[in-house]
Amino acid sequence: MDIDTLVIGAGQAGLATSYWLSKAGVAHLVVDRRDRLGGSWPDRWDSFHLVAPNFTIRLPGKEYAGPDPDAFMPRDEIAGYVADYAADIDAPVRLGTTVRRLGAAGDRLLAHIDGDVIEARNVVLATGPFQRPRLPAAARGLADHVHQLHSQGYRRPGQLPDGGVLVVGTGQSGAQLVEDLHRTGREVHVAVSMCPAAPRRYRGRDMIWWLLQTFLHGAEVGVPFPTVADLPTPAARFACIPHLSGVDGGHDVDLRWLARDGVRLYGQLVAADGPVVRFSDDLDKRLAFVDSAFDREFRPLFDAYIAAAEIDAPPDDRPPRDDYVPPTSTELDLDAAGITTVLWATGYRLDFGWLDLPVLDEWGYPRHVRGVTEHPGLYAVSLPWLHTEGSSVLAGVGADAEHVVAHLAARNAQRKFAS
After folding, report:
1. Which among 222, 253, 381, 394 is least surrounded, fewest beta carbons within 10 Å?
2. pLDDT at position 131, please?
3. What is the per-residue pLDDT for 418?
4. Beta strand 58-59 with 62-63: parallel, antiparallel or unpaired?
5. Rounded to 5 degrees, what angle do the CA atoms 203, 208, 209 make?
6. Low-confidence ranges of the chain (pLDDT < 70)
7. What is the DSSP annotation of 240-275?
8. Domains of the chain, first to last
9. What is the pLDDT of residue 369?
10. SS3 349
């Protein structure tokens, strides 16, 4: 099979790319290993809601226009929205198609699928940021009778064995899973990450509203939204996302409040020996970092935008910071504590092992400039900090896809002119 452009991945980023390819008149095919549309959203747990309000759904050609822009769409509705988007834009999608290897021959890229090879002049990698669950080395040291599950496989508290749960990691997913388990009466223990907290509302608006406005309009008033070039190191592309929740109309996730309500907090899980796990002795410092991150990373940006755009916003009315540090320990016997499950909310890592091209950096991330990789005709979208923090979310994938397709279309035109 010979086509102009192959898009690998039919989630929101791949479909946004398809939208712009169609607008540019570029013949293309979108393939996805899954057997149904909706991207990775169906992989979330049952009670999951968008952490960002519905007004952040900005897929090109299908921005949210429903009756509840400030609400938080539940999991199945998000998946349905993305699936409907494919139909709305008439995307040429082939499901149940796994690219086993992507290589090159001459000026063509060769995508090896089961029983066939697709030759393409251009390929867009749209496989998203959630490629392979990451498990720490300590997971191998746990006793065999302890049930282990990565957050990717978690759906509801009832799927876990009876007994307490140790949640390892308090990024955006981990913090929400702690709440999901705690509200059902489970005894929950938590190994706390260095992931920032964020207030649901700041100066009269949802925190994400300020983030979106700065993303869309900051440059117009001299407050540009940070790009990947502003990160201190390339490793910062993989930093965890602030924890918030879209459940019950949206709210903060406060680890100290959860501790006051009976959740047990610990430092970082550093080792496991059978049923015994050990933690770093720095819970107080971790909680202080978590609670202060918003004022370091986001508040200066938002305040600068509010001032520059001359927005009449109310003052910061967040309640005083809670300095409660719960009792903790550096060692926990899971059996003695009645803990039967360790739930790993330790994130994901990129997995481009099937990419047979020398374009990956030391983190397994394609070397690129805003999605244009070092290999001619190979592009990427929807990776963490591809261009900005919004590159892998519903609000940002469209802009990056448009940029990539503009480069791709110009490359096609140049090649036709040269021939």
Report:
1. 222
2. 85
3. 63
4. antiparallel
5. 65
6. 417-419
7. PPPBEE-GGG-EE--HHHHHHTT-EEES-EEEEEBT
8. 2-131+350-418 (3.50.50.60), 133-348 (3.50.50.60)
9. 95
10. strand
